[in-house]
Amino acid sequence: MSGGPKGKKNRNQRGGKQEKEELAINDEIRAPEVRLVGDNVEEGIYPILKALKIAEEQELDLIEIAPMAQPPVCKIMDYQKYQFQQRKKLKEQKAKATKVVVKEIRFGPQTDEHDYNFKLKHAIGFLKEGAKVKSYVFFKGRSILFKEQGEVLLLRFANDLEDYAKVDQMPVLEGKRMTIMLSPKKVTSKKKEEPAKEESTPEAPQE
Question: Is residue 195 part of a domain?
């Protein structure tokens, strides 16, 4: 059969660049038979010439949507409309995908209490927003001698955040940095319901 369905062209005739991700359509489909699916056809396995004829009668394209299936699965519809639907679907999937945000908090090996509490408050805010927190102690010069003190600081930090975060990575020394990684966890705000106290009514005085 020469040419695709009536009024339709293959990619070479359209003049566009053929990408590896693009699906075979019309005469580009090489399988001897295909499985047709969709609302506008009676689903089943058809010889390729019959499938092309059905597409031609509907003035639509035969699109090979699952080339690795046995036999390949095809759909009859306008190829440009199909591409638009796939791009829209991909865009929606990307929009739903959660972007991981990592906030960094830096300490010195001898951080004072005021600075510690200030950074702890920031970390709580980041975790409540759903961001990860990468906290590290930076050892400058001879302060590397205080690495154990830095580890204690990071473990205290993780402990103070236990209601808001879980530890992904325990303190690890890499070069001049000792790092701990924390991820937000869901805070259950439901209070335990206390059983209602039975009120005892005073007995009426007997006459």
Answer: no
**Cα separations in angstroms, 207 against 202, 203, 204:** 15, 12, 9
In the block, tokens 């591409």 appear at 83
CA atoms of 4 and 10, how far apart (whole Å): 7
Count of C-beta atoms within a 10 Å radius of residue 123: 22
> Same structural domain for residues 38 and 109?
no
**What CATH number has the domain bearing residue 45?**
3.10.20.80
**170: CATH:** 3.30.110.10
Q: State pLDDT tens for residues 8-60.
A: 555 544 444 444 457 899 999 999 999 999 888 989 999 999 999 999 999 99
Residue among 85, 88, 65 nearest 75 (CA): 65
107-118 confidence digits (pLDDT tens): 987 888 999 999
What would the two tokens of residue 190 be? 């439901």
Alpha-carbon gap, residue 179 to 31, rounded angstroms: 56
The counts of H helices and E strands in the chain are: 5, 8
Rg (the chain; Cα; Å): 33
Q: Would strands 165-174 and 61-66 be described as parallel, antiparallel, or unpaired?
A: unpaired
pTM: 0.45
How many of the other CB atoms lie within 10 Å of CB of 142? 7
Residues 165 and 107 reside in one and the same domain: yes
Contact in structure between 164 and 128 (CB atoms under 8 Å) = yes
